[in-house]
Amino acid sequence: MERLNLSNILEIKNLKRSFGGVKAVDGCSFEIESGKIIAMIGPNGSGKTTVFNLISGILSVDSGKIILDGSNITDNSVEERARLGISRMYQQSRLFKNLTVKENLLLVLDQRNFNFFARSKPSTEQTEQINEILDLFELNKKINMPVKTLSFGQRRLIEIARTYLLPHKIMLLDEPVAGVTPHLRNEISKFLTKLKDEGETILIIEHDMNFVYNLVDEVVVMDAGKIIAHGNPIEIEKNQKVKEAYLGA
């Protein structure tokens, strides 16, 4: 089995993917070190979500490699990648709105054997896990509330919590604060910082520059399927190529 740089949780090597002659991702390469939060930014259609889909296995690569924790997973299925440690939150909500917060979290814990549908109450271990995650995200008072009664921002927090509950080595978060009120954007930033302090590695797609620059360690900027810049937020904010391609300067 191929083993590369073990200081990096994820290594993307010259990824390429085309759709009908359009190069959606064209030679994309970057690395993510363990314990860091990295943001991918760029205009709509720049290839960010396609990269996420290639990493998680929803799309196959035309060429290139995806290395997770030193092992080549380029040809692994979505399910195999999830078992190996890729946990993803999608841009569109995947919560069950008629179920409670607790039940939505239980579905994650029981997803491998569908025990959720076979028993009337969770195990002691599961109850402890759910209480811990709700403590972490300060959502204890919402535990028995149907998801449909929560605000959009609170639902995003639940989705981040679900992503966190899955066994993982890296979390992929697709626009976690899109459409979220400023107050809850600050709350989500606080909780993601807390996760980073616990050693979590997180890759996010986001358009809110204030959210990105105040949270992340590094920024990867894409345009027309290519990476045009990669650096810390201060470097990216000053980069003229980024201003021209993304910030409209």
Task: Describe what you observe in this structure.
- The chain is of the alpha/beta class and 249 residues long.
- The protein folds into two domains: 1-85 and 168-249, P-loop containing nucleotide triphosphate hydrolases (Rossmann fold); 98-166, no CATH class.
- Helix content is 35%, strand content 25%.
- The protein has helices at 48-56, 78-84, 101-109, 124-136, 152-165, 182-197, 209-213, 233-238, 240-247; strands at residues 8-19, 22-33, 37-41, 63-68, 71-72, 86-89, 170-174, 202-205, 218-223, 226-231.
- β7 (170-174), α6 (182-197) and β8 form a beta-alpha-beta unit.
- α3 (101-109) packs parallel to α5 (152-165).
- It is globular.
- The N and C termini lie far apart (46 Å).
- Mean pLDDT is 87; it is low at 1-6.
Number of strands: 10
The CATH topology assignment of the largest domain is Rossmann fold
**Radius of gyration, taken over Cα atoms and rounded to an integer in Å:** 18 Å
Cα shape: globular
> CATH homologous superfamily name of the largest domain?
P-loop containing nucleotide triphosphate hydrolases
CATH domain class of the largest domain: Alpha Beta
Gap from first CA to last CA? 46 Å
Regarding quaternary structure, how should these chains be classified? single chain
Structural domain count: 2
- CATH architecture verdict of the largest domain: 3-Layer(aba) Sandwich
Strand content: 15-25%
Unreliable runs, pLDDT <50, ≥5 residues? 1-6
Major beta sheet summary: 6 strands, mixed
Tell me the strand order in the biggest sheet.
Answer: 6-7-8-3-9-10
The average pLDDT score comes to 87
Percent helix, as a range, is: 25-40%
Question: What pattern of helices and strands is seen along the backbone?
Answer: EEEHEEHEHHHEHEHEEHH
Count of individual helical segments = 9
Structural class: alpha/beta
